């Protein structure tokens, strides 16, 4: 019976560290993987076929070796973007390599037969758009404030006049600057 928990996250994720510590205390087999380590620090081989319709194979990190069929659960939490691994490449090559890694390794890690997922990447993507989140909340009967999403300055002025003080909220936050720092609006 599958028993390993695969923790898919960045190396410096303190929340994942706590989850891993709790799993270790319970003597649950656990392996931490950051997909952006793909290359010498993360090697994998996976097979599938008509007679074996679930992914089988192995995932090897610097400290762990995991049989894909032994993965019972996947805790997916903020892994490093694949492109980080390939930053040294020219843009087209970087984008190609990152997409291949994401669709290859990511396609396998996101579809392990019988594994339970916490924050499945597909669910994260589906919930990633604030307009969709607001619509879902409203459909579930939750109270949401009057909201306008627009790029029309006149509509924004009319909305503000109708509703009094307004709050602007970004959809994604600010991207990192050249030094890797983020800001706030």
Automatic annotation (TrEMBL):
Domain MvdD-like pre-ATP grasp intervals: 4-120
Alphabetized InterPro entries for the sequence: MvdD-like_ATPgrasp
Q: Which Pfam family, giving just one, matches this sequence?
A: ATPgraspMvdD
Protein name as catalogued: MvdD-like pre-ATP grasp domain-containing protein
From which lineage does this chain's organism come? Answer: Bacteria, Bacillati, Actinomycetota, Actinomycetes, Kitasatosporales
């Amino acid at each position: 019976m599958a028993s390993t928990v695969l923790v898919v996250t960045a190396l410096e994720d303190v929340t994942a560290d706590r989850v891993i510590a709790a799993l270790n205390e319970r003597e649950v087999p656990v392996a931490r993987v950051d997909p952006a380590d793909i290359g010498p620090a993360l090697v994998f081989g996976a097979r599938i076929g008509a007679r074996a319709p679930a992914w089988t194979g192995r995932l090897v990190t610097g400290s762990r070796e995991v049989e894909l069929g032994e993965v019972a659960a996947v805790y997916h939490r903020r892994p490093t973007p694949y492109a980080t691994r390939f930053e040294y490449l020219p843009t087209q090559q970087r984008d190609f390599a990152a997409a291949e890694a994401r669709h290859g390794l990511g396609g396998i890690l996101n579809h392990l037969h019988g594994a339970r997922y916490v924050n499945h990447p597909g669910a994260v993507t589906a919930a990633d758009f604030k307009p969709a989140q607001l619509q879902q909340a409203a459909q579930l009967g939750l109270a949401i404030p009057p909201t306008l999403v627009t790029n029309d300055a006149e509509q924004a002025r009319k909305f503000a006049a109708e509703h009094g003080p307004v709050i602007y909220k970004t959809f994604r936050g600010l991207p990192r600057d050249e030094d890797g720092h983020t800001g706030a609006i």
